[in-house]
Amino acid sequence: MLGHWIDIPTMGGVRFGAYLSLPPSGKGPGIVLLQEIWGVNEHIRAVADQYALAGYVVLAPDVFWRLAPRVDLAYDESGTSEGFKFYQRLDTAQAAADAGDAVAALRNFPELEGKVATLGFCLGGQLAYRAAARSHVDAAVIFYGGGIDQHLDIADQITQPILFHYASNDSHITQAKVAAVKAAFADKTNATFFNYPGADHGFNCWGRAAVYNQRAAALATGRTLTFFAEHL
Length: 232
Fold this sequence. Notes:
232 residues; alpha/beta; 6 helices; globular
C-alpha cells in the first residue's frame, strides 16, 4: 500500500497532518475519511487502506490536531478515556471546517480523478454530515454519526447524495434519534438509510471485539462501495 502521513493546509495557512492512502493504480476518486474518538489509529488507517484498495484516493485528516498531533489510541479503558477527553475539548464547528479544508486539499491532489466524498464514523460521521452541509463534497456516507440529531437545522443545506448506516442496538444513538434524522430528510430524495438489526454502536470496528459485527460491517461496506461507485 502507498499509505503515508502528509501535511495539508488550512484556509488560514496553518498546516496539519493527514494519513493519505493511494489506490494501486495511483489515481481515482477521493474520500476524506473522518475518525472516531481514538484518532487516526491503526484501525482508521486500515480502513483508509481498505477503500484505497477499492480504487479511491483516501485522506484521513487528524481531527484532534489543534489539541495534540497524531492522536493514536487503543481500544482499551485507558485509550477510551483519553479519547473522550479529546472529544469533550474539541470545537466541532472548527473540526468541520478543518474537514472542509481537507476536502479542498484533496481536490488539488494530482492523484485525484473524479469527485470527492466524506466518509465518517461516530464523531467523524457528524463531521462528514456537517461538511456536506457546507457543500464541500459530492456525496457523504455516515456510519452511526454521533450528534447529528443536534444539527438538523442544516439538513436542508444537504442536497448531494447522503447515506446513513445505523445500529438497532445502539444506546448512544438511539432509534428515537435515528427517527429524528429520518424525519429531517423525509421530503428529500437524496438520503438513504440502513438500520442493522442486532448491531451495536461501532459495529464496523474489528478492533473492538465487544461490538464488532462482521455481517453488518460487510453489508455496510458493500453498500458504501456501491454508493460511491454510483456517485463518485
